[in-house]
């Protein structure tokens, strides 16, 4: 019986360590998710450099706001045909999207956003963060209160949050395509644009994958452990 208790305590200690490691992995995903949702470098919109002009225009946007920048062409790499990257120093003008408050579409380089798609991407991302926070709370309860039944709930929450983040990224991609196609007929004419996805969206992809991986780790930990208690009595019986 003494050996049975020893092995059970040892298994519980190792199990707690594994839960902490899985939580650390999920925390990395959560950090990337918050960084992604909270920043506005999801995509960069770049105009083409014009001959005879000292400046060019670029923009970067995320779920909540858009920033347009006037960059000096001398700072733009010579091998680029377009303005950018948006991280270069320049005169910036950042505004929050009004479709969250007044319901108005935003205009960027004579193009109009499709607010329904942008709103959907933002709402899905926020739901992902909320479910992720619930998953963190469940795992903390497992470690502090020993509520083992919450381990499976936490795994489901982290998996769902990862899926929601990835869905939000895909919806945002559709919003970018819609923006490029909705050219305003009003003067001045819309400039030619190129676009490239930036580091905020990369953080979102990494966050979604890491959260899914963390959910898988938590699900593995919910599987029955090796039955030390059933083996140890047999060993003791053989010894007698």
How helix-rich are the residues, as a percent range? 55-70%
Q: What amount of the residues lies in strands?
A: 15-25%
Strand order of the largest sheet: 4-3-2-1-7
Biggest sheet features: 5 strands, antiparallel
Which structural class matches the secondary elements?
A: alpha+beta
Query: What is the molecular shape?
Result: elongated
Contiguous runs where pLDDT drops below 50 for at least 5 residues: 227-240
**What's the average pLDDT?**
85
Q: State the oligomer.
A: single chain
What does this structure look like?
A five-stranded antiparallel sheet has the order 4-3-2-1-7. The chain has a two-stranded antiparallel ribbon with strand order 5-6. 31% of the residues are buried. The protein is built from five helices and seven strands, in the order H-E-E-E-E-E-E-H-H-E-H-H. The chain has one domain (23-97, 108-222): Butyryl-CoA Dehydrogenase, subunit A, domain 3 (Up-down Bundle), CATH 1.20.140.150. The protein is an alpha+beta fold. A hairpin with a 7-residue loop joins strand 1 and strand 2 (55-61). It is elongated, with a radius of gyration of 26 Å. Regulates the activity of L-type calcium channels that contain CACNA1C as pore-forming subunit. It is a multi-pass membrane protein. It comes from Pan paniscus (Pygmy chimpanzee).
List the main descriptive attributes of the protein structure presented here.
disordered C terminus, cell membrane, 240 residues, 15% strand, calcium channel activity, Butyryl-CoA Dehydrogenase, subunit A, domain 3, 5 helices, alpha+beta, five-stranded antiparallel β-sheet, two-stranded antiparallel ribbon
């Amino acid at each position: 019986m003494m050996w049975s208790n020893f092995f059970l305590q040892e298994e519980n200690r190792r199990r707690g360590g594994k839960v902490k490691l899985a939580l650390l992995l999920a925390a990395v995903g959560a950090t990337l998710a918050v960084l992604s949702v909270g920043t506005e470098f999801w995509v960069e919109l770049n105009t083409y450099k014009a001959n005879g002009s000292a400046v060019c225009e670029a923009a970067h946007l995320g779920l909540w706001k858009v920033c347009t920048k006037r960059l000096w062409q001398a700072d733009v790499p010579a091998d680029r045909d377009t303005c950018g990257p948006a991280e270069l120093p320049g005169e910036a003008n950042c505004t929050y999207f009004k479709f969250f408050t007044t319901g108005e579409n935003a205009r960027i380089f004579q193009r109009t956003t499709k607010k329904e798609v942008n709103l959907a991407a933002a709402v899905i991302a926020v739901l992902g963060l909320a479910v992720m926070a619930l998953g963190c709370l469940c795992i903390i309860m497992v470690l502090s209160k020993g509520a083992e039944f919450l381990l499976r709930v936490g795994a489901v929450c982290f998996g769902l949050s990862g899926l929601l983040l990835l869905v939000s990224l895909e919806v945002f991609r559709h919003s970018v395509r819609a923006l490029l196609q909705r050219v305003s007929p009003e003067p001045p004419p819309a400039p030619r644009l190129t676009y490239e996805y930036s580091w905020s969206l990369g953080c979102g992809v990494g966050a979604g994958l890491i959260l899914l991986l963390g959910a898988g780790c938590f699900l593995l930990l919910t599987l029955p452990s090796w039955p030390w208690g059933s083996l140890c009595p047999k060993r003791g019986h053989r010894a007698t």
